[in-house]
Each structure stands twice: as C-alpha cells, then as structure tokens.
Amino acid sequence: MSNHLRQGAAADNPHNGLMLEVLLLLYLAASLIHFTHNAEFVQGYPSLGFDGLLHYTRAPIAAHTHGMNFTIGFEVVAAAILLLYLVVRARRSFGAAVRRRG
C-alpha cells in the first residue's frame, strides 16, 4: 500500500472515533471529579466557574489539599491529551484532503 493510501486510510480509521470517545470520557470523568471536589470548597471559590488552573490565582499550590491539586492536575492532563489528539487528527485529515486534491 502506498504511503498516500495508508495515511488516507488512517484518517478514516473507525478506531479514531473510539479513541475520541475514550478521551472525551476521560476528560468528562476528570472534570466531574474535580468539580465534585470543588463543591466542598465552593465558598472559597465562588466565581471560578470551569477554569481549573485559576485556582492557583486565588491561592498557591501549597494552600490546596492534595486531593484538590490531584483533581486539578488530572483535569488539565486529560484536557491536554484530548487537545493533542484532536490537533493530530485534524492535521492528518487536512493533510489527507490536500493530498487527494493535489
């Protein structure tokens, strides 16, 4: 199989959809755990909304519990993995579309 066909097939791979679902669920779980934990401390963070790293603008890392730091980090790592996956997938899809036209 030529490199052109192999890359085009990778862009249409049904496993890509499964990977996206898994990463979305991972991020959803991380966010849910983080915001559930936040509910215990809502009085200290009344206007933060969904911006996990903004916790550190209100208080330094040492002022947070280990659980809070874990949930913030878990959410940020899950979001970063999801974003990286989407960027790579978009690049591959765009590249495959350009190659098909050219």
Describe what this molecule looks like in 3D:
With 102 residues, the chain is mostly helical. It has one domain (3-101). It is 74% helix and 0% strand. The chain contains 4 helices and no strands.
**Helical proportion?**
over 70%
Total of domains:
1
The overall strand count is 0
Which regions are unreliable across 5 or more consecutive residues at pLDDT < 50?
1-9
SSE string, helices as H and strands as E: HHHH
Categorize the overall geometry.
Answer: elongated
Portion in beta strands: under 5%
Average pLDDT, all residues: 80
- The class by helix and strand makeup works out as mainly alpha
Number of helices: 4
- Looking at the chains present, what oligomeric state does this protein adopt? single chain
- The CA-CA distance between the termini, in Å, is 19 Å
The main β sheet shows up as:
none
Work out the radius of gyration. Answer: 19 Å
